[in-house]
């Protein structure tokens, strides 16, 4: 795909700057390379016609000379398909059919990707002008980095700025990578090797599949380049998964934590194990004190060494915090 201009895209009645009557060329021109690595961008969508066009235009107006854009629609009935058809000449691939969930849709897209750098942007989020060119330049300049994460800006459904977030540095202790390291998908871009080495998104984790995938990467020595530059906007419009089902995220996250235990050494395991025990103990204690005690006793019987070492680690941590 070559650079697209506003005149080449379907006409729109929307106004107000990017990506409606501002094509982002000024921002894109700030990054230059002799050869641009190929980008594959996937947008999974289902009944998001009110936001989808802005997402698509924010990708297509990146002025990126080597772009493959894929849209996987879950069988929308709200006019999304008609909208996608208007932009179809500029897409590498699109389909509208039922899927299991968002992760399943993305995996369909991944199997179509041929790019060197892969990312996905949801149909109610959008990229900022020049983001892809800047990401490409940074990854070319930092070949040791397996992927990159920048700043994500949050807005409400009316476009009002709310706050920003940035992924913190990778923790020193590997056990902390699993449950103490927040990541923000809309500002993440992964080299193809991330998927070649670690596999696809987990469709059995429909809410936290992106978090699980990102935390998987450093265990394969795929380390991030963390930059303080804004790449994308997440729109909190009241009907996002994050807002409608917030309680599901911690519950589903706890499901994949044990899957990472095999990455840890015998020295790293006790702190990680003890954190999981304390988390589950707290949940059960809210229901019943005897139930919580029974759970703790069961863990002590099944994993006596980790239990004792974990308790010792916790006591030392508490003493350290008191003396700090």
Structural account:
The chain has 324 residues and is of the alpha/beta class. The protein folds into two domains: 6-254, Spore Coat Polysaccharide Biosynthesis Protein SpsA, Chain A, CATH 3.90.550.10; 265-323. The protein is 40% helix and 18% strand. It has helices spanning 25-28, 49-60, 80-87, 102-110, 131-141, 174-179, 192-198, 209-216, 241-244, 248-256, 269-287, 289-302, 304-323; strands at residues 39-45, 67-73, 93-96, 117-120, 125-127, 147-156, 161-166, 188-191, 224-236. Helix 2 (49-60) runs parallel beside helix 3 (80-87), helix 11 packs antiparallel against helix 12 (289-302) and helix 12 packs across helix 13 (304-323). The N and C termini lie far apart (56 Å).
Architecture per CATH nomenclature, i.e. the level-2 architecture of the largest domain: Alpha-Beta Complex
Radius of gyration: 22 Å
Question: What is the makeup of the main sheet?
Answer: 9 strands, mixed
Integer average pLDDT: 93
Q: Whole-Å distance between the termini?
A: 56 Å
What is the overall shape? elongated
Number of helices: 13
- CATH class value of the largest domain: Alpha Beta
Unreliable residue runs: none
Question: CATH H level of the largest domain: which superfamily?
Answer: Spore Coat Polysaccharide Biosynthesis Protein SpsA, Chain A
CATH topology-level name of the largest domain: Spore Coat Polysaccharide Biosynthesis Protein SpsA, Chain A
- Output the helix-strand order: HEHEHEHEEHEEHEHHEHHHHH
Helix content: 40-55%
What is the total number of structural domains?
Answer: 2
What structural class do you assign from the helix and strand content?
alpha/beta
């Amino acid at each position: 795909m070559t650079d697209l201009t506003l005149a080449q895209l379907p006409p729109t009645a929307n106004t107000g700057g990017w990506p409606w009557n501002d094509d982002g060329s000024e921002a894109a021109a700030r990054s230059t390379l002799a050869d641009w690595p190929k980008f594959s961008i996937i947008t999974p969508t289902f009944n998001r016609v009110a936001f989808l066009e802005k997402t698509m235009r924010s990708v297509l107006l990146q002025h990126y000379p080597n772009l493959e854009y894929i849209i996987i629609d879950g069988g929308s009935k709200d006019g999304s398909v008609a909208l996608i058809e208007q932009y179809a000449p500029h897409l590498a691939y699109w389909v509208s059919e039922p899927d299991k969930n968002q992760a399943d849709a993305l995996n369909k897209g991944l199997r179509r990707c041929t790019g060197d750098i892969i990312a996905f942007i949801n149909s109610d989020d959008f990229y900022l002008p020049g983001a892809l060119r800047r990401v490409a330049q940074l990854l070319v300049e930092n070949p040791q980095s397996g992927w990159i994460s920048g700043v994500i800006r949050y807005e409400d459904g009316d476009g009002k700025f709310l706050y920003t977030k940035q992924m913190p540095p990778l923790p020193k202790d590997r056990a902390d990578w699993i449950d103490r390291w927040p990541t923000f998908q809309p500002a993440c871009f992964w080299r193809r090797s991330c998927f070649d080495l670690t596999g696809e998104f987990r469709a059995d984790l429909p809410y936290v599949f992106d978090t699980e995938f990102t935390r998987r990467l450093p265990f394969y020595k795929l380390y991030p380049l963390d930059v303080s530059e804004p790449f994308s906007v997440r729109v909190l419009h009241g009907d996002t998964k994050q807002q409608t089902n917030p309680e599901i995220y911690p519950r589903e996250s706890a499901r994949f934590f044990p899957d990472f235990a095999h990455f840890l050494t015998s020295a790293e395991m006790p702190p990680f194990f003890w954190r999981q025990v304390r988390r589950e103990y707290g949940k059960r204690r809210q229901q019943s004190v005897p139930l919580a005690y029974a759970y703790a006793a069961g863990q002590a019987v099944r994993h006596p060494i980790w239990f004792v070492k974990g308790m010792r680690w916790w006591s030392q941590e508490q003493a350290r915090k008191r003396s700090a």
